[in-house]
């Protein structure tokens, strides 16, 4: 992991040179590409960014908008041309939100000093002040890893607030408004990018990449990208007067997000020290050597064959016994037990409720799966064998010492008492230190994974030094218990050496009076390694206890609550759901059974094969409605039924397996295109290719290596990744389809494509869709407006649009769907089908064809 961007080539060394005094940034005839061995992604880019200006970059999905922002940040190599810059500080907000495991305030302010007045101003500008007031702990609320305890819109606004709070000269925003509802999006845009917005008031230049061309009216400069080439740039009025629509750019070379596959490098194990081989010179074979030596002294070379044979047999038996023990432990016992523990751990995490996942530090779970499982797989069996071996050796050495010097026998029990007292004191301390050593690594793992996920943001803000210092501090904290453990191990060796030295002195004194050379020699040889074996015995015993502690910590996950509740054992029929009729009956849901409800007294019916659109402000409870159907939140009261089967009586795994979900953030897995479309299930390639053809990704996939191409090596934009998820839904077609803001980050053409695919491929299916783009819901059968966790409105789109004071109508007006337009649709249907442009309030000239689905226009006309 590098906190610094890759070292630039000689051509790139001009990146950061002084630009014209009137411009913050000047890109001059530059080509950019992710791989120097492949064709460039962006071609012949010529752009200037003056101070205190708003530049909007627009274009179709995959046209190169995000790549251009990454190039400005220095993340994409410059293959030709130059970047001249007067900017020394840049802030960046990505469409893929990066949130750390901490409070809302920490995510916005850290690592910068806290400025109360500026902080409150930023909260107001991002409309977060209203959301924070609804939290019990206000801005001290811990939002979990990746912000799991907040909605998608809230996470996005936290990231926007972080970019503004940093007070940089230049701020880059990559499609940050797509996850927000209409009202919040308008508020945030006006308060941040408007003529009286916070950025203009403080002289900050902003670059906003978006597919929403209605925002061009507010820009100082507009840029249109097509397939990595700037086709238009200049005043927004010039671009608005032209047709800016473009295809989904399925064959585009650009990529909005690039995942870097880190090779799995496994360091070869280091052979154990030769000290063990050196120390195996004592034992029962030495006693046989003593007898051999005494016999040889009396009769030189007498019975030589007997002694050699017995010596060889003893060595072979010892080696065979040791090999059998290793085989038994490493090949039979360890795989079975570790697999069982790993399966148990995976099962507990998979069955954990949503509130546990949002409130638990990801480093804790990572520690269990990595370090604790490593201790069980590798350290525990090795320590068990070494402890057994050293215990046997210590016991035999004590016997040999007594055999060699009979008068030493009474000292052995006394020495055992002394050693027991020492190890009792030592174990009590070392056990705690070993546990501290393990637990202190969880924050380090968390910080490492968070840094890895936010490398682009960290480098953009220039926070490398701060994160290095934080990493060094966490690393030092994690090493302190290890250092103290090393110190007390040295202390143990010193004390044991002193004890053995006392025994050696007594043995030497006895040797003066005892004339039996052989026994005394065996005793002295045994005594030489007795001290080291004794200390190793205690160390291995302590290490084995620590490894057993790893088992205890994994077993402690037994306390993790299971989302499965009593009474959820009724398995429905194999063809359930056959129709897809969904009914909510006075349903109140919450994340925990004893927490306040997030949805209250919700009653609605979604007939089989109908389409329900859900809209509302960010954080109003829309996603909780989908989570309730998936049983990822708890039902406090009421009931939800699908085809008259209560979801409270069905196993949750079965419910989720029978429902198709397309989330707001595209979910792709490491593997091939085939694996991502089929979900690792066996399926005919023809079906997979047909699905890709329907979402217009067939040519792009075929030109990139076909279905066996690795997903992380394919240049996919955010919109194209969403199309992959749509293809997955097509091949896994179910009677119920849940959509959570699936088109919030795509352009109008891709939106139209996705809506058309959903209409044709899921005809007859029950569809519940959450959308901030009201235009995508106008051909739905029913609309539900959620406000504050309650059903605010419910009815057909036309009825809600015509009702005065309707929230849905307000949302529609914010997107330019005025009532007078709807009243004139019947008379002007033919003209609307030709896509003539009309003036939409203050949102600029846009085509009604882009706002209202063609099927709805045809129905009303």
Automatic annotation (TrEMBL):
Annotated membrane topology: Multi-pass membrane protein
GO cellular component: plasma membrane
Species of the source: Aspergillus kawachii
InterPro entries per record: AAA+_ATPase, ABC1_TM_dom, ABC1_TM_sf, ABC_transporter-like_ATP-bd, ABC_transporter-like_CS, ABC_transporter_C-like, ABCC_6TM_D2, P-loop_NTPase
Subcellular location: Cell membrane
PROSITE patterns in the cross-refs: ABC_TM1F (PS50929), ABC_TRANSPORTER_1 (PS00211), ABC_TRANSPORTER_2 (PS50893)
Source taxon at top rank: Eukaryota
Protein name, UniProt field: Multidrug resistance protein MDR
Region (Disordered): 237-278
Keywords: ATP-binding, Cell membrane, Membrane, Nucleotide-binding, Transmembrane, Transmembrane helix, Transport
Domain ABC transporter span(s) in chain numbering: 27-252, 582-813
GO molecular function, one term: ATP binding
Positions of transmembrane segments: 304-330, 491-514
Domain named ABC transmembrane type-1: residues: 285-546
